[in-house]
Amino acid sequence: MINFFSNIKVKKVFNTLTILLILTLSSFFLFNFLPLEDVFSKNPATGGDTGSHFWPVKILAEYGLPQLKVHLWNPGNLGGEPLFFHYFPLPFIIMAILGMIIPLGMAFNLGTLFGLIFLPISTYFCVRSFKLQKPTALLAAMVSLIFIYNEDFSMFGGNTLSTLAGQFSHGYALCFFLIGTGFYIRGVQKDQFSFWGIIFFTCTAFSHAYLFIIIPVVFLAALLSYQKPLSFWLKNALYGLAILLLSSWFIFPMLLNQAWMSPTPMTFGARYFEKLLHAPLIQYFLYLSLIPLAYFIFKQFKKREKDFYRNLLFWSLLLISYVGLYFIFPKIGLVDTRALPQILLFSLIILSFFWGYLLKEIKNSYALNLIIIGIFAGLLISIQKNVHQFPGWSKWNYSSWKKKPLYPALLNLSEDLRGSLADPRVAFEQSDINNGTGTIRVFEMLPYFANRATSESLYTQATVYSPYAFDIQALISKTPSCPFGLIYSCPTADLLNIENKLDLLGIDSLILVSEKIIDEARLNHALKEVSKSGPWTVFKLTEKIEMSRTLNGAKLDIRMIDANWKRESMEWFKARNQFDDFLVFALDQSQKEQIEKRYHYSQTLPVHECASQVDSVDFSGFDFSTNCPGQPHLIKYAYHPTWKLSSLDPYFLISPGMLLVFPSTHHIRFEFAKHYVLDLSTNLSLLCFIILIILKKKKRLA
Predict the structure, then answer these.
(1) Distance separating the N- and C-terminal Cα atoms of the chain
(2) What percent of the chain has pLDDT over 90?
(3) Which of 60, 347, 506, 527 has its CA 20 to 30 A from that of 189?
(4) Cα 235 to the chain's mean position, in Å?
(5) Is this prediction's pTM over 0.90?
(6) Ramachandran region of residue 227, left (φ > 0), alpha (ψ -120 to 50) or beta?
(7) Residues 23, 124: contact at Cβ < 8 Å?
(8) Which residues, 6 or more positions from 585, have their beta carbon under 8 angstroms from its beta carbon?
(9) What band does 179 get if pLDDT is binned at 50, 70 and 90?
(10) From the CA atom positions of the chain, what is the Rg in Å?
């Protein structure tokens, strides 16, 4: 009897050690490819989109969190962009909090890797919750490595190259989604609500929408696969309502923000399906998986296992949903290939079910563990042989800006441009040469390097100002990026008649790199060459630019806002080199009458020399002054519905996507993120969280 219990104890220890060994190596095998001295340095990563993500982390860490604010205003990019309205805040919050303990650059570096580190563990926890055969969850964690180290896509999210390209938020969302699904299924099995399921699904909402939108399908799949009665619909509805209310702090402001974004439709097409199928790691696994599939088919002629089919149905429904979304996303303004990570990962998880079905036939626990360890070792060797780009990419990223060949020139350029975020903006030529700093997008970080605002942003869709900024980029670039080319035509370079458009958009400096573009700039007498650093030449407008403009005497064409207003405004901008008439868009009839009344009143005021300016800016708003109260003023910051003026004056939308105000006082403070939707959503989330805590303490939630 003693030997019997002793053997059971040894088996459990051996099983536990096998699980710990595989999960630990799965998570930290990543560091085999990373330059650890760079990852653990205080210098933030660069490369692709990654470098530009550090500026919002810095704003959040140094300004937002100390004031308990997350919805912030960034005056440094894109005409003044809202932060964490349209892009997902939780990964940045985690990095900023970690930055209170360790250097912020190191926190950022580690934070970009968390999705990769925790995905195997999240996958194991999720699949383990479905109570499949014992080795299945461990096998699912192992095959998640095939997803992580697949190098056949680099911009869709979840894998190594996507993470280094800047799509690390998708990795966070995958982890939170899998953990949330695991907790939810445990609650379904016990016929209980899961407190932690609600929390982790909410974290998914705060990390990436491409995972959050599938949560209703999780509910439907549970209803069908677990054959729950119709009363289960009500429970799911309450569960979903709890997630929605808890997420409302982010979701409602995001929905409020939707109308004031600039969508950039992208469709990559079905070729990426084929590309994934030809990836070596995936091909090897698919061929080997024919063995357990054949065994399953043979075995099921003799015995049908209800639990296996139940779980197969659940994951198949999720997989089929993302296949459908792949074709639906482009029709609703989303990127089709953002469905591919889920399609690949869920397919691998499903195949792991069949491997588990086969290996469960090995009854000897020691032999089973040794076989799994052997398979895992073979998988790691295969990954090691097939990973080619990740080490080089990671060295490039985590060696940061300081080790890049153009970094000294970048520092010199930054000193030449250094100023205040209240100064006019800097526009820059799009060029591959900029990649010598670490990323082609380096000048999106001018607020970080030079304390100067720039016209562009990583978050291309963030404001209604965005299409005009990229139109300017095309006018000053030999090879423009043209993210809005599918919606608006992309102009060719023309620096001879650009000064009035620069003035209108609050731009007074240009960073140019191509010889042809530089030569053309020298022909424009409104521009003067002021400095040169490395490959870059800086030009500045000879006339002083203010960040506001008095429109006394200008014609205002007042229109009702409709579905075409963005196109009308862009056509207005493209057709002019002189700006003495403007389009003003009213949200409703009442506002139209209000604008007309103020406009007509301003025309009765005596005309004299008017001057106005933006005095200072910070991450909550800006201060404005004028000597002409009552006159219409164009303020060169992007329109957003959450501005509040200290004078309580209304403000309006004027082409090109900016602010129009008829000030009643000489000095006005514009405060950002002041709107009843923000207050309501915050209170709803807080109230929901308190109720959930109370129910948890009363053990009403599992």
Answers:
(1) 37
(2) 75
(3) 347
(4) 32
(5) yes
(6) left
(7) yes
(8) 559, 560, 561, 565, 569, 652, 653, 654, 655
(9) very high
(10) 28
